[in-house]
Amino acid sequence: MTREEHLKFCKICNNQKFDSQKGIICGLRNSIADFEDTCESFDENTQLKEKLLAKNSENELINQTASQGTRFANYLLDRIFILIISFFLGFIITLLLTIISPNSAGYFEQMGKLEEFVWGFIIGMFYYSFFEALTGRSIAKFITGTKVVDENGNKPTFDAILLRSLCRYIPFNAFSFLGSDAVGWHDSFSKTRVIKIK
Question: pLDDT of 86-126, one tens digit each?
Fold first, then answer.
């Protein structure tokens, strides 16, 4: 067996010991492992095994995390799709208002800034929450080959998706992506990540 194959056992063994020059060694023999198939003194530590599995899973997730460029493309594409949906929804509502209440037909033309923000907030919340809860992907994420997962790489809960969608409206959220890990506030608060799946 190679040193790497030995370490798969040694890292989760109760008998392990750390040596500053050799790394992880057997605490019973004070030497690095040299067994062939099995170690007679192997005593599995379930806590160490769980920690190692969690760390490996986290490292794998970090390696799959979408880049800043991809996240920016997602942002721009999603904004375009939200504008398109808003336009068509506004058109349909205006058409219905013209039929039902002709005096209210000009509602969208008379909206103030606050009403425009509320309208955009509702459409955006619905857009992100619906698509990401249903498929883990917004329309832009389908295009860029990315997906939303929780911190363990699993499908996020609806609550996490709802919180994620809500956190997008935190002022200056876009600037939270300027770090090297491409993880924004709406990712960290909802304990989600966006990963590459293509």
Answer: 999 988 988 888 888 777 767 777 888 898 889 899 999 99
CA-based torsion, 151, 153, 159, 160: positive or negative = positive
DSSP state of 103: G
Beta-carbon contacts of residue 33 (< 8 Å; ≥ 6 apart): 1, 3, 6, 7, 9, 10, 25, 26, 39
Question: Could you give the CA distance from residue 193 to residue 191 in angstroms, rounded to a whole number?
Answer: 7
Q: Give the tens place of pLDDT for each residue, 135-175.
A: 999 999 999 999 999 988 889 999 999 999 999 999 888 88
d(CA 164, CA 142): 18
Whole-number Å distance between alpha carbons of 86 and 124? 9
Q: Of 95, 12, 63, 10, whose CA–CA distance to 181 is shortest?
A: 63
H or E element that contains 187: helix 185-188
Output the CA angle 115-118-124, nearest 5 degrees: 140
Closest to 149 in 3D by CA, of 60, 78, 80: 60
